[in-house]
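Deliverable D4.2, example record:
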Amino acid sequence: MNSEQKIHVLTYNIHKGYCSGNRRFMLDSMRERIAETGADIVFLQEIHGIAIKSQAKRRRFSYPDQPHFEYLANEAWPHFAYGRNAIYRKGDHGNAILSMYPFASWENIDISIFPRSSRSILHGVIELPHKSTRLHTLCVHLGLLEQERKEQLQVLTDRINNHVPKDEPMIIAGDFNDWRRRAEQHLHADLGLRELFVQLRGRHALSYPVWRPLLPVDRIYYRGLEPAACQRLNTGPWRELSDHAALFGIFRV
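Output generated by the structure prediction step:
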C-alpha cells in the first residue's frame, strides 16, 4: 500500500431493489453496476434485510433467499454491516455499508422522530491497511420533514463529537433529503466537514429523480481526507435502476 492510497466510495439509495415506479425488481442489475464501479466502500440506503415474499413473487421477481445486503456484497465485499430502521410484518429495511476492509466495530443509532418515519445512522469504523488508519464511515437516511431533519442532524452532530476523534478520517454518505441545503450549517460550520461535489465542482450533485435529476438529496461529506474525483451515475444502465442516482467518489488517504 503506497503513501498515496486511494479510497473509492459509492453511495446509493436502491429503493428496496426496485426501479422507479416499482414495475421491475432490479437487484441483479444493481449488483452488477455497483461492482463495476470498483468501490472499496459502498453506502446503501433502503436495502432489505429480511423480505418475506410468496413463492409466486419470488419466481416472478427473482428474489434472493438471503438478506439483500449480503446478496449485493456477494464475493466483492467480504465485510458488511447492516442497520434496520424500518420493521414491518413482512420484513425490514435500512442502511448498509459494504467494505473491502474489516470493521473494527459498528453500531446502528436510531434517529426516528415520528413512529411512522423510522430512520437511523449506521456508524462503522473500518481498519484501512494504510499505517493502521481507522476510517469512520456513517451511512445516513434522514427524514422528509425539515423539523425532523433538523433534530436528526443534531443527533448526527452529537454522535460525531462524542465518538469520532478529530485526528481520524471520516466519510458520511447517504440520502439526506436536504433539497433546501440546510445541512451545511451543521456539518460544515459545526464539524468542519466538506461535501465532495461542492469542493470539486462547486455545487451539490442533483440526484433525484434519476431520469431528470432536480433535487440534491444524496451527499458525500468527508473530513481528514483529500478529495480526488467525483461522478454522478444516472445515465445508461443506471437510468433503469433505482429512482435515485448513485454518487461515486475518490479520496486520497
